[in-house]
């Protein structure tokens, strides 16, 4: 599988700009024969916007339908983070549209980060997996990927690819540099971590979007500016995969 990540600045509540940038990134990724593209956390309407509840949208809303159609038009899967409105509940969510435009997964962030997120959102309560090409895939969002039990749960159920929209801000550069590759190596999965760059309100994003392979190598990593990051996932070498799950001794 060939993976693509879009690292961009926040669309800052401009839904038209958000969709246009996503469509442009999707077209470029498809031209380079990527199988899927991952956008940052709460791309719609932007992670650190001041009135998220009023701007939250449903999975079947017009912007999401537009992005599903773009995925179908380019025959390229798309993972997009968004503030999801479902009745009285608000979720920090990410949907995956398949290359045919169908919804393959709608994931709700389990590990809400900090007082702002906990005040805004209801936490999700499931860790679903789904088929994406030849891979068994899952979505985690930002802080979720720092919790080894969640990644172990997915790996134990056969996940080989974890797609992670994120909004990682300064000073937490250790996450793309160290945490993401370590989680990939320890659990034998590929992790694609798509971040913002630039500033949004009082946040400065670190960029450093990262694709880490199942043996812990950083296969591709962005800098601090807008980037379309693309790489191929290497074959999993059984001789190099971690055996921690089989060898663990509970004390």
Describe this entry's structure for a reader.
- The structure is a single chain.
- With 251 residues, this protein is an alpha/beta fold.
- The protein has one domain: Nitrilase/N-carbamoyl-D-aminoacid amidohydrolase (4-Layer Sandwich), CATH 3.60.110.
- Helices cover 27% and strands 28% of the residues.
- It contains 7 helices and 14 strands.
- The strands form 3 sheets. The chain has a 6-stranded mixed beta sheet with strand order 5-4-3-2-1-14. It has a 6-stranded mixed beta sheet with strand order 6-7-8-9-12-13, covered by helices on one side. It has a two-stranded antiparallel ribbon with strand order 10-11.
- Strand 6 and strand 7 form a beta hairpin.
- Helix 1 runs parallel beside helix 3.
- It is globular.
- The N and C termini lie far apart (39 Å).
- The mean pLDDT is 97.
Summarize the structure.
The chain is built from seven helices and 14 strands. It is an alpha/beta fold and 251 residues long. The protein has a single domain (2-242), classed as Nitrilase/N-carbamoyl-D-aminoacid amidohydrolase, CATH 3.60.110.10.
Instruction: Label the structural class.
Output: alpha/beta
Distance between the termini: 39 Å
Overall average pLDDT: 97
Strand order of the largest sheet: 5-4-3-2-1-14
Portion in strands: 25-35%
**What count of helical segments does DSSP give?**
7
CATH topology: the name is Nitrilase/N-carbamoyl-D-aminoacid amidohydrolase
The top level CATH class name: Alpha Beta
What characteristic shape results from the CA principal axes? globular
Largest sheet: 6 strands, mixed
Rg measurement, Å: 17 Å
Low-confidence region ranges: none
Q: Quickly count the domains.
A: 1
Q: From the 3D coordinates, which CATH architecture would you assign?
A: 4-Layer Sandwich
Give the % helix: 25-40%
CATH superfamily: Carbon-nitrogen hydrolase
N to C succession of SSEs:
EHEHHEEEHEEHEHEEEEEEH
Number of strands: 14
